[in-house]
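Objective 1.3, modelling of assemblies. Example input:
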Amino acid sequence: MPRKISESTVGRLSLYLRFLEEFERRGVTTVSSQALAVRGGTTAAQVRKDLSLFGSFGKRGLGYSVPELTAAVRKILGLGRQWRVALVGAGRIGSALFEYGDFRQRGFRIVCVFDSDPEKVGRAWGDVKIEDSAGLTEKLGREQVDIAILAVPVDVVQEVSDRVVEAGVGAILNFAPTQLHVPPSVAVQHVNMSVELEALSFALSRVEGAA
Amino acid sequence: MPRKISESTVGRLSLYLRFLEEFERRGVTTVSSQALAVRGGTTAAQVRKDLSLFGSFGKRGLGYSVPELTAAVRKILGLGRQWRVALVGAGRIGSALFEYGDFRQRGFRIVCVFDSDPEKVGRAWGDVKIEDSAGLTEKLGREQVDIAILAVPVDVVQEVSDRVVEAGVGAILNFAPTQLHVPPSVAVQHVNMSVELEALSFALSRVEGAA
DNA sequence: ACATGTGAACTGCTTCACAGCG
DNA sequence: CGCTGTGAAGCAGTTCACATGT
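Predicted structure (tokens):
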């Protein structure tokens, strides 16, 4: 196993996995790097390089066995187990995420939900009761949470993040539009929809300006 | 203006803008590249390089004027106008996006919403009526939509994308976990929450494995 | 013959270090 | 003196091209 794998490689592996699962459902038994590349919007060489960082999964002259490669990529991504996830923030975004079936299906189980609004605390979402954020640090440790999803307002997210880290959680998915400061041992990913929209705004104004 | 600007630069500019707006609210009049770097999780040199791609906005020995730089970055990102946005898919994610105040505040106005579920068609969200996806292509052209947000299931998203492109929309924000195939003149951004979670899964299993 | 796996070349982003200017 | 603006150096990710194996 190599020391350092780039973000981009990991992201592409996730995409390949989806295509592989689709091929599997359709009963396809073999794929070439070329086929994966077309679906993923990249090149065959890139696919082979990504995979070669973790081993040799293909057969020369033939391609990759779909079931074998699927299993291999799942394992690489650490999807062989259930991950215990906490959702902090039971607003609009939190609610959409809770209902998002894809997560559960991929082994991410939301085991607790927090909110600071007394109106919401005590309500049940499915079989999970919304708890008061006050007890967050303690509960996260007790529940052995692996990943925390932060869907809280930007002005409190750093404080929430600090408490999550204190509880020993090693990974954070942040929906607030700011950079979190965490120890290097904690993995952080961002989802920032406004930033994506602004990238589109930028692209659009460029082509207009060029006309 | 330079020919090619990287995705990463544009993303960072969006972040800088948020910090600048925050400084502005707090009445700070001047920032250094260093101050922006700390907030954005990058380096002072990177900030200066990003900005220098578009011009000289600072004063040597002093830093940047907050109001001036804010205005400059807004202009660079094309945020000086209202963008007309269509939301396709009125499910959980669509609903969360519709309510997401940040968009409107930054000049992205959702002017129409589509869904293919007859149950939903005809209902009103605020002052926008949900329309049948059947009339999508025609309506998008009539409404002069700039950007389409696709929050539809993965198995129909390519078809929806084709119709959106046909209507002449130049920018797409895609929430479905697949690569869209569009002409090079159309700008596409992705938001893929499962991919982000899988990156965390990958990171977590690495540190465990290393122990 | 065909498709993988991979060193080598290349491209482009990031970091460095310092000249330039307030 | 302090901080910006920027060529040059360094580094990382991508693409190329071919040896390797079926």
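The CA atoms of residues 5 and 53 of chain A lie 8 Å apart.
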